[in-house]
UniProtKB/TrEMBL annotation:
<dbReference type="Pfam" id="PF00234">
    <property type="entry name" value="Tryp_alpha_amyl"/>
</dbReference>
<feature type="transmembrane region" description="Helical">
    <location>
        <begin position="45"/>
        <end position="64"/>
    </location>
</feature>
<dbReference type="InterPro" id="IPR016140">
    <property type="entry name" value="Bifunc_inhib/LTP/seed_store"/>
</dbReference>
<keyword id="KW-0446">Lipid-binding</keyword>
<keyword id="KW-0813">Transport</keyword>
<comment type="similarity">
    <text>Belongs to the plant LTP family. B11E subfamily.</text>
</comment>
<keyword id="KW-0812">Transmembrane</keyword>
<keyword id="KW-1133">Transmembrane helix</keyword>
<protein>
    <recommendedName>
        <fullName>Bifunctional inhibitor/plant lipid transfer protein/seed storage helical domain-containing protein</fullName>
    </recommendedName>
</protein>
<feature type="domain" description="Bifunctional inhibitor/plant lipid transfer protein/seed storage helical">
    <location>
        <begin position="66"/>
        <end position="131"/>
    </location>
</feature>
<feature type="transmembrane region" description="Helical">
    <location>
        <begin position="7"/>
        <end position="25"/>
    </location>
</feature>
<dbReference type="InterPro" id="IPR033872">
    <property type="entry name" value="nsLTP2"/>
</dbReference>
<dbReference type="GO" id="GO:0006869">
    <property type="term" value="P:lipid transport"/>
</dbReference>
<dbReference type="InterPro" id="IPR036312">
    <property type="entry name" value="Bifun_inhib/LTP/seed_sf"/>
</dbReference>
<dbReference type="GO" id="GO:0008289">
    <property type="term" value="F:lipid binding"/>
</dbReference>
<keyword id="KW-0472">Membrane</keyword>
């Protein structure tokens, strides 16, 4: 028995439609991934700017011992939750006495006290502060 010509045509149409949907879905997935990557980059910029704002607003007395600019190397770990670099951990350990000051700063508090920042501290073997 042969399939009717109408049945074969419908099967081809359905296959074409399915392929079109797959192509559209693929484009949409690429677009969403691109947007997610841009958002992550934007978050890193926001963290870096916030760190720089704290440096600019730090008083002379605290400038000698606390330098939030040294924590800029930690921006990728804090914004994305990825594993911190050895340089990040080294700078965090050197800045431990400054954490409460950073947390209390309105410009930085939400970044320094975020879940990803706490995860970064823990990954570096540092106990998150209780201020």
């Amino acid at each position: 028995m042969q399939a009717s010509p109408d049945g074969a045509g419908q099967a081809r149409s359905l296959l074409s439609y399915s392929l079109l949907l797959l192509l559209l879905a693929r484009r949409q997935i690429k677009r969403v991934i691109g947007m997610a990557m841009k958002k992550q980059q934007q978050e890193q910029v926001v963290v870096a700017v916030a760190l720089l704002l704290l440096v600019a607003s730090a008083g002379c007395a605290s400038a000698a011992s606390c330098s939030v600019g040294q924590l800029a190397v930690c921006a990728p770990a804090i914004s994305s939750g990825s594993k911190p670099s050895p340089g990040c951990c080294s700078n965090l350990k050197a800045q431990q006495s400054c954490f409460c000051q950073y947390i209390k700063n309105p410009s930085l508090g939400r970044y320094v006290n975020s879940p990803n920042a706490r995860k970064t501290l823990t990954s570096c073997g540092i106990t998150p502060p209780r201020c």
